[in-house]
């Protein structure tokens, strides 16, 4: 009997260990509450040195959000974006390092501070973040999302939302950067997965 009980205990422990890496089921916020944005306002070089564009005090110290999957998630979202653009007869977007930096920084900010917005915890806007990363634009835009655990899920949500879809299928953009983090300790919203998409066209 003791052997049987020990065997059952080991099976339970093994099962728990195997499931420990699984991502938690998340709630999905209403994307319509934070619509996608885009603009072709003139590039303003003075923003680069303005106070709001200086790196903020670290808002992520001690944060448990992980960006270990960011590169793979980014590549898959960009692939799916370009599948949708090809269906619409549009050119593919190419991954751009500065846009990726802006998007990943914002996703980390969202995931560490449990929010979904175009406004960063340091008061930055989407435009501030891409300029701070050094991107010289003629067009810029941003999509954000939270609660979607896979690239396909977040793309489906964005494509089902008119303003986010308009950004993805905009002929004004030629370049893209994707940010993604996962925070298993999201006790505020239970969103866990946080996303940002920075879009642009260079001057």
What does the model show?
The protein is globular. The chain has helices spanning 2-19, 70-87, 97-113, 126-132, 151-159, 162-168, and strands at residues 37-39, 94-95, 137-146, 175-182, 193-202. It has six helices and five strands. 37% of the residues lie in helices and 16% in strands. The longest helix has 18 residues, at 2-19. The relative contact order is 0.24. Helix 2 (70-87) packs parallel to helix 5 and helix 3 crosses helix 4. By secondary structure, the protein is an alpha+beta fold. The model is unreliable at 1-21 (pLDDT under 50). It starts with a helix and ends with a strand. It has a five-stranded mixed β-sheet with strand order 1-3-5-4-2, sandwiched between helices.
Strand order of the largest sheet: 1-3-5-4-2
Radius of gyration: 19 Å
In percent terms, what proportion of residues is strand? Answer: 15-25%
Largest sheet: 5 strands, mixed
How many helices? The count is: 6
Head-to-tail CA distance between termini: 75 Å
- Give the CA-based shape: globular
Which class do the helix and strand fractions yield? Answer: alpha+beta
Residue share in helices?
25-40%
DSSP summary, beta strand count: 5
Mean pLDDT figure: 83
Element string (H = helix, E = strand): HEHEHHEHHEE
Q: What ranges have pLDDT less than 50 throughout 5 or more consecutive residues? A: 1-21
């Amino acid at each position: 009997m003791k052997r049987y009980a020990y065997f059952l205990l080991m099976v339970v422990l093994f099962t728990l260990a195997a499931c420990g890496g699984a991502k938690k089921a998340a709630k999905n916020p209403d994307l319509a509450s934070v619509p996608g944005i885009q603009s072709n306002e003139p590039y303003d070089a003075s923003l680069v040195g303005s106070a709001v564009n200086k790196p903020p005090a670290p808002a992520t110290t001690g944060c448990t959000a992980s960006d270990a999957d960011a590169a793979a998630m980014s590549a898959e979202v960009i692939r799916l974006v370009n599948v949708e653009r090809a269906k619409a007869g549009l050119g593919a977007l190419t991954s751009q390092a500065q846009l990726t930096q802006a998007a990943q920084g914002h996703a980390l900010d969202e995931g560490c501070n449990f929010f979904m917005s175009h406004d960063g915890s340091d008061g930055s806007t989407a435009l501030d973040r891409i300029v701070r990363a050094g991107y010289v634009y003629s067009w810029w835009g941003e999509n954000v999302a939270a609660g979607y655990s896979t690239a396909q899920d977040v793309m489906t949500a964005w494509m089902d939302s008119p303003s986010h879809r308009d950004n993805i299928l905009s002929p004004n953009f030629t370049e893209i950067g994707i940010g993604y983090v996962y925070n298993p300790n999201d006790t505020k919203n239970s969103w866990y997965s946080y996303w940002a998409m920075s879009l642009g066209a260079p001057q």
